[in-house]
Specification:
about 450 residues, alpha+beta, UDP-n-acetylglucosamine1-carboxyvinyl-transferase, Chain, 4-stranded mixed sheet, 12 helices, about 30% helix, globular
């Protein structure tokens, strides 16, 4: 158990060794959804066990699917697909603050052949965007009722399947809405043609469509004018009966940044290189290179090695994060250590995630003495001497805790004593439960203890 306030002990020597990353949250929850839509058992290996994935798995169990978890082996065994959607009583599903679970389960229940499903989360979840997905599902024939404010949770879904056909979707606030619709579209009576309104961040959608192909679907067509076409009635299947989850590229960004903060060399064994694998967040590797890190394949070709010689230049950068925005906090948190201003753009939509991430990041950096200019879609951070004794507010947002946890590894006082503390470090359980344990183990190994 972590304390309510965690002082971050700095590294006194350059980092060395390797960091075993958790499985991808985004891929685990997508693979869970696709696995339950198969007509035979599927074993997910290297799966992530975190608050978000546990919520997803438990909701699927309540719907009637078999989801057997073995956390020691990092596997999720999915079965009993044909017995699902059988309850004659309303089924209550709780999604906490898990955006993937919220959107994916909403789409799944709307596409179900029968049943009544009541979906809700924590109060903050009731503020997160759902209107675009709700509207699109209704247009496809679903009976989705907002029992609170229109366009938000809580929802009550009276399932009767999806008709299919043409539909418009505004997924500009969250690409998860388009991913959710794509994954259930093959269950509709007719092909689904989605015309996007307002644009979308494509990398996570491409991850979804490539995963759908891995589960037996024909390629999803992306047509002119931001139109997505998904054929109907193609069955989901996984011929091998197993699917291996990639390491989480978003979680990797913290350990990609660590050598920039403390110097040294760190290997990330399960991480794919830039442009490889399914996850667009590997784009952060290129950002790290521009700030001075050396990024290369690890010895033996498994994973990535990050190197940085302490004392070398660390230039500030300008970067559009619209397509991999979960990692912008990693760069923003270490920006005080860079040589010159850093400008981060493409992040307006993150104001409607776990918290207003733009405003929250600006607020915490200012507490640390930094010169920060906040715009609706951007932050410009000009380094100033760091303030000591600061308690970082995390806003129940795991990415604040982890990003500033990396900054705190900098030996600001030159004596190995903490100068920065993290409030509510346990919020990391959402996606990376052992983050601070792994960080501490690396510190011990690097110090020679």
């Amino acid at each position: 158990m972590l304390p309510d306030l965690l002082p971050i002990q700095p590294f006194t020597r350059p980092v060395r060794g390797s960091a075993a990353l958790p499985g991808s949250k985004s891929l685990t929850n997508r693979a869970l959804l696709l696995a339950v839509l198969c007509d035979q058992p599927v074993l997910l290996t290297d799966a992530l066990f975190s608050e978000d994935t546990r919520l997803m798995a438990e909701a699927l169990r309540r719907i009637g699917f078999g989801v057997a978890a073995d956390e020691a082996a990092q596997t999720l065994a999915v079965s009993n697909q044909r017995a699902a959607f059988a309850s004659r009583e309303p089924v209550d599903l709780f999604v906490g603050l898990a955006g993937t679970a919220a959107r994916f389960l909403t789409a799944l229940c709307a596409a179900a052949p029968r049943g009544v499903y009541r979906i809700d989360g924590v109060p903050q979840m009731r503020k997160r965007p759902m209107a675009g997905l709700i509207s699109a599902l209704r247009a496809l024939g679903a009976d989705v009722r907002c029992t609170g404010e229109e366009g938000f949770f809580p929802l009550e879904i009276h399932a009767r399947g999806l008709l299919g056909g043409p539909v418009s979707l505004d997924a500009s606030e969250s690409s998860q809405m388009l991913s959710a619709l794509c994954m259930v579209a093959p269950l509709a009576q007719k092909a689904v043609e989605i015309t996007l309104v307002g644009g979308v961040r494509w990398p996570f959608v491409q991850m979804t469509t490539r995963l759908m192909k891995d589960f037996g679907q024909p390629p999803v067509e992306r047509r002119k004018g931001d139109v997505v076409f998904i054929p109907a009635a193609a069955r989901y299947t996984r011929k091998t009966g197993a699917y291996a989850i990639e390491s989480d590229a978003t979680a990797a960004s913290y350990f990609v940044a660590l050598p920039l903060v403390v110097g040294g060399s760190l290997t990330l064994p399960g991480l794919h290189g830039l442009g490889q694998g399914l996850q667009g967040d590997t784009a952060f590797l290129e950002v790290a290179q521009r700030t001075g890190a050396t990024v290369a394949p690890a010895a033996g070709g498994r994973g990535i090695e990050i190197r940085f010689q302490a004392g070398s230049p660390r230039p500030g950068v300008t970067q559009d994060f619209s397509n991999f925005s979960d990692t912008f906090l990693t760069l923003a948190a270490i920006a005080p250590l860079l040589d010159g201003p850093t400008r981060i753009t493409g992040i307006a939509h993150t104001r409607k995630q776990e918290t207003d991430r733009v405003a929250g990041m600006a607020r915490e950096l200012k507490k640390l003495g930094q010169d920060v200019r906040e715009e609706n879609d951007a932050l410009t951070i000009s380094p100033r001497p760091l303030t000591t004794g600061v308690e970082i507010e995390t806003y129940h947002d795991h990415r604040f805790a982890m990003s500033f946890g990396i900054l705190g590894c900098h030996d600001l006082l030159k004596n190995g004593r903490p100068w920065l503390s993290i409030k509510d470090p346990g919020c990391c359980a959402k996606t990376f439960p052992n983050f601070f344990e792994l960080l501490g183990a690396l510190r011990e190994k690097s110090s020679g203890n």
